[in-house]
Structure formats: C-alpha cells, structure tokens
Amino acid sequence: MRIRCKLLIKSLDMETISVSDWSNLTLHLEESLTSALGHYLDNWRRNVTAAANALDKTLAEENVRDVIWYLAVMIGMFAFIIVAILVSTVKSKRREHSDDPYHQYIKEDCE
C-alpha cells in the first residue's frame, strides 16, 4: 500500500501528465482504494465474528445456568409436594386410635 501511495505521489508530482499516465493513476487509485476497503472490511468482519462468538459463548453459559436453576426449582417443588403428601398420610394414620368408634366397629366384626 505504501508503494502504491509513493507511486501515486510521484505521478502527481509530474508537471505534464499524459493520457496513459492518467489511466495508470486511475488504476493505481482503484487498486489502492479497493485494497484499503477490502482490508477494512476483512478486519471489520473478524471483529464482528469475534464479538458474535463471545456473545454466543456468554449466552450458552447463561443458558446452562438458567437450565440448572430451572431443574433445581422443579425438583425442589416436586420434593416438597411428595414430603407434604407423606407427612399428611402419616398424620392421618396416627389419628386412628384404638378407641375410635369406627375402628372398634371394624375390630368387632373381624372377631
């Protein structure tokens, strides 16, 4: 790129510029601008790709954390419901005493 700029400056320093020099100047200018723009776009694409990769990595990590929290909450709720059912069943079994009239009625029928 520096060589092209030097050639461009040298060609501009000339007092008389012929038609072929103008076409050379145009070609040099076109090549310089195309190269500079291509270089800029390549760097920009690499930066965008790097940013997209970093964002994807961050989102994947957050997604895993969200899934872990979701599973922990769901398992906790399930465990709470199961424990509540077991406790209520055990309490209802304890309330059946031998002096319960219904219990006495069944006991007498079985004898």
From TrEMBL:
Which UniProt keywords are listed? Answer: Cell membrane, Ion channel, Ion transport, Membrane, Potassium, Potassium channel, Potassium transport, Transmembrane, Transmembrane helix, Transport, Voltage-gated channel
* One Gene Ontology cellular component: voltage-gated potassium channel complex
Coiled-coil residue windows: none
Picking any one GO molecular function of the record gives: transmembrane transporter binding
Segments passing through the bilayer:
67-87
State the Pfam families in the record. Answer: ISK_Channel (PF02060)
The answer to whether the entry has keyword NAD is no
Localization: Apical cell membrane; Cell membrane
For the biological process aspect of GO, one term held by this record is: potassium ion export across plasma membrane
Annotated membrane topology is: Single-pass membrane protein; Single-pass type I membrane protein
- Keyword Transmembrane helix recorded: yes
Q: Which InterPro entries match?
A: K_chnl_KCNE
The UniProt similarity line reads: Belongs to the potassium channel KCNE family.
Which PANTHER family has this protein been placed in?
POTASSIUM VOLTAGE-GATED CHANNEL SUBFAMILY E MEMBER 1, 3, POTASSIUM VOLTAGE-GATED CHANNEL SUBFAMILY E MEMBER 2
Please give the name of this protein: Potassium voltage-gated channel subfamily E member 2
Q: Which organism is it from?
A: Lates japonicus
